[in-house]
Amino acid sequence: MTITTDAVDTAAVSGDETAKRPRTKTTPGGVDPALVSQLVTQAREQGLQLSGEGGLLQQLTKIVLESALDGEITDHLGYDKHDTAGANSGNSRNGSRSKTVLTDVGPVQIDVPRDRAGSFEPAIVRKRQRRLSGVEDLVLSLSAKGLTTGEISAHLAEVYGAQVSRQTISTITDKVMDGMAEWQNRPLDPVYPVVFLDAINVKIRDGKVANRPIYVALAVTADGTRDILGLWAGDGGEGAKFWLQICTELKNRGVDDVLMAVCDGLTGLPEAIGQVWPRTVVQTCVVHLLRNSFRYAARQHWDAIAKALKPVYTAPTEAAATERFLEFAEAWGGRYPAIVKLWENAWAEFVPFLAFDAEIRRIIRSTNAIESVNARIRRAVRARGHFPHEQAALKCVYLAVMSLDPTGQGRKRWATRWKSALNAFDITFDGRLSAGRK
User: Fold this and answer.
1) Are 384 and 204 in contact (CB under 8 A)?
2) What is the predicted pLDDT for the residue at 162?
3) Which residues pair with 220 in a beta bridge?
4) Of 30, 162, 257, 311, which cross-links 324 as Cys (Cβ 3.0–4.6 Å)?
5) Exposed, middle or buried: residue 390 (CB in 10 Å: 0-12, 13-18, 19+)?
6) Rounded distance, CA 372 to CA 403, Å?
7) DSSP letters for 123-138
8) Residue 88: C-alpha distances to residues 114, 117, 121, 362 (Å)
9) Rg of the chain's alpha carbons, rounded to an integer?
10) Are 293 and 343 contacting, i.e. CB atoms less than 8 angstroms apart?
11) Of 387, 386, 381, nearest in space to 400 by CA
């Protein structure tokens, strides 16, 4: 069942000022509500569905696209259809060709006009284009959530009635790798107040399924916004030698100074950071210390251990922290000596933040900065299970990272949250942060 074009003023849809239909109040988008109401009423009378194959939305999409293409070829040729001005002009219309494009409302078959000279290059639906941008955005959004190509294909078929092959979906997502390469090599700021370094294990099938680290470097900028500096796929377990390569790469991309680097207790990592940025204060992540502590304890003791350790990392001074830790060791050292040894080994990199302003301590002690990013990445990675190769893993993580703050509201919250801390950083580190803003 189709929409009769004589019952619908399509000129009003395209905004043609010559249309004689009286105008009524319009929506902010410029669409006449009376016209929309008439279309919906006509569709109901004809038993036409709103969505789905052959539905009202698909037919309207076809009308709008074809009207736009007719307008484009008119502008290209310089005269209207059947206008005598086109006689002996050197170029003219030459019929049309049919093609199917995948849109947000499903596949739509359209007739694309041609010219005899073959010089017409449509813009709204380009030559060889089979998908409108909304579909690609949808595919990338689903991929960022960890769906496989097969799951995305099934979702599009179920919800939109669109048959999109797994190869097509893979082609769409592969395009992001070009953007990722440019993003990964972009110039960086000269100074960052804080850089968080962490690694997330993903399962990669290389002969056999094995854990491989994806390294993440997240920075807080001098303006208080979040900036993910890069993603790297490791070739084995997390290692300080690989982190040294990453820090060197960041320095080569323009990072001359980092005030504080927050990381886990990986052996050799503080030395690797100090080799690249000698003045950087290396701080062991408190959340990592707590998480690693729980690995040595029975589940029923986690709450008690967390309560006993809180006075250690919230102590006002290093001396007070030492006293609280000795109390913890006396209470729990007999049952869990490995936890005591863990904190003793990490103590040199744990205590630096205790000497700083309360604003800096609050920000550094809470690692929400990178934990929120890691949570999004882990969600996407868990949805996939494992990856066929490291490029597939990197693509999934990159898409998850790029979809972190679609509205930009998170960026505003970050700037507000970090304002006081940045002032404290500037004072504590003798103007090194201000020097980076110049």
Assistant:
1) no
2) 59
3) 194, 226
4) 311
5) middle
6) 13
7) SSS-TT--B-HHHHHH
8) 17, 13, 21, 78
9) 30
10) yes
11) 381
Q: What are phi and psi of 182, to 5 degrees?
A: -65, -45
Rounded (10°) angle between helices 337-350 and 302-313: 30
Q: pLDDT per residue over 54-112, tens digit each?
A: 666 667 667 767 777 787 788 888 878 877 776 777 788 888 888 877 665 667 778 88
Under DSSP, the state recorded for 22 is: P
CB 147 within 8 Å of CB 158: no
- For residues 207 and 199, the answer to whether their CB atoms sit within 8 Å is no
Q: Which two tokens stand for residue 157?
A: 């078929």
How far CA 91 is from CA of 82, 94, 214, 383, in Å, comes to: 13, 9, 57, 55
How far apart, in whole angstroms, are the C-alpha atoms of residue 407 and residue 429?
A: 33
CA distance 366 to 247: 23
**pLDDT number for residue 201:** 86
SS3 state of residue 60: helix
The helix/strand/coil state of 398 is helix
406: Cβ contacts below 8 Å, ≥ 6 apart: none
Q: Which tokens in the block code for residue 240? A: 């300080």
Task: Please enumerate in sequence order all residues whose Cβ is within 8 A of that of 206, keeping only pairs 6 or more positions apart, or say none.
Answer: 389, 390
Under 8 Å between Cβ of 28 and 73: no
Are 310 and 328 in contact by the 8 Å Cβ rule? The answer is no
* Distance between CA atoms of residues 92 and 177, nearest Å: 41
Amino acid sitting at position 340: V
Q: C-alpha distances in angstroms, 53 versus 64, 157, 343?
A: 17, 11, 63
Report pTM. 0.64
Angle at 240 between CA 239 and CA 245, to 5 degrees: 105
